[in-house]
TrEMBL record:
Identification of the protein by name: Biotin transporter
Annotated membrane topology: Multi-pass membrane protein
Keyword Metal-binding attached: no
Pfam family, one: BioY
Keywords recorded for this protein, A-Z: Cell membrane, Membrane, Transmembrane, Transmembrane helix, Transport
Domain of life: Bacteria
Organism encoding this protein: Comamonas avium
InterPro entries recorded: BioY
Family: Belongs to the BioY family.
Transmembrane segments: 12-30, 36-55, 62-80, 92-112, 124-148, 154-177
Cellular compartment(s): Cell membrane
PANTHER family in the record: BIOTIN TRANSPORTER BIOY, BIOTIN TRANSPORTER BIOY-RELATED
Amino acid sequence: MNHTLTRRNTESIALVALFAALLGVMGLIPKIDLPLGVHISIQTLGVMLAGCLLGPWRGLQAIGLFLVAVAAGLPLLSGGRGGLGVFMSPTTGYLVGWTAAAFVTGWLMSILPKSTPLRAAGSAFAASAIGCIAVLYLFGIAGLVWIAKIPLTQAIWANAIFVPGDLIKCALTALVVHSIARALPEWRLGGAVSR
């Protein structure tokens, strides 16, 4: 069995680590605190980008690597939070949901049309909206109900405040994907770099 890393494996490892680091850098941007211990941060934009640009598996790996670093105590979440305690807070559902959101976003991006930069941007918007709004909100609502012990209907309505900001993040993701599709047509959006 050949144990050497191929160029493709090396690129995959580098991209996963790069996006995990990008999420950490996004954590330096201050969060906006809301009631129920929930807050708005820019880091979900990183989740959207990871899914759209890396695909389902690498996107999931990047988010997983980031969450392992957070669990190990690195203060990478917005507001300088880190450690196992953040996984016992009302935001636990959102944090755990990041992996599913990146996977679903990447999977949708891999099957949606990307023949032109404009189509790629539209696909990125749709994939991000479904993966990082619909799927992520399901996890977030479950966390609010389970950990914060608030009624389901209140948890659902508590997420309504996030929708406008998350739609802006979807539009920013679409803009980034459009730019990459124009500048790097060899990049296989929703997957890996193709050579």
